[in-house]
Structures are given as C-alpha cells and as structure tokens.
Write a structure and sequence with these properties.
The chain has 100 residues and is mostly beta strands. The chain has one domain. It is built from no helices and seven strands. The chain starts with 18 loop residues before the first strand and ends in an 8-residue tail after the last strand.
Length: 100
C-alpha cells in the first residue's frame, strides 16, 4: 500500500492461518517474507503486479510469532515460535532445498 494513494497495490492469501510477520528485504527490493501461526514462512517475489510464491518452509518451531531480517546479511531472516525446545530459527533463504 502507498499511503499517498487510495487503495492497495495487491493483496494475497499468504497462509492457512493468521499471518504474524511480514518482512521486506532492505537489500533485495523485490523480496518479501511472511510468517504465520500455521508454522511456516514463505518467500515472495513482489516485483510484478501480483506476488509470486518462491518457497515455503516449515521451521519446526511451532506457531511463529515474530519475523525479522538480518541487518548485515541480505537473505538471512530470524523467526521466533512457541516450541519450547527450539523456539528461534535463523534461515538463510539461499539454502532453499526446493531451489536446488
């Protein structure tokens, strides 16, 4: 959404449950990552009029409640979840198994 204009650029149904995090990469202008209590994070290509899903990953940390981008490494994100024994996950999106 552009606050200077009325209406949204686009909207997506990103997850099966509530989305709890949205992060735009400060290094890659077309990269967006979302997180959800459905226990997944998703990487989106947002360069066109309609976002395209790049990959989905279950981080195995339970429902995810927070998401942030690493300020020093462009493709690394940190997510926090509710699973007691493994409640934080650092993810380098370049190590995507689906992309290999």
């Amino acid at each position: 959404m552009d606050a200077r204009k009325a209406g949204a650029f686009w909207s997506i149904q990103a997850h099966e449950k509530e989305a709890t995090g949205l992060c735009l990469s400060s290094y890659c202008a077309d990269l967006m990552v979302t997180a959800s209590v459905d226990e997944t994070v998703k990487v989106w290509d947002i360069k066109d009029k309609e976002p395209k899903l790049v990959t989905v990953k279950n981080l195995n940390i339970g429902p995810i409640y927070t998401l942030t981008a690493c300020p020093d490494v462009p493709y690394v994100f940190c997510a926090g979840g509710s699973k007691k024994d493994n409640h934080m996950y650092l993810w380098d999106t370049r190590e995507n198994e689906q992309g290999k």
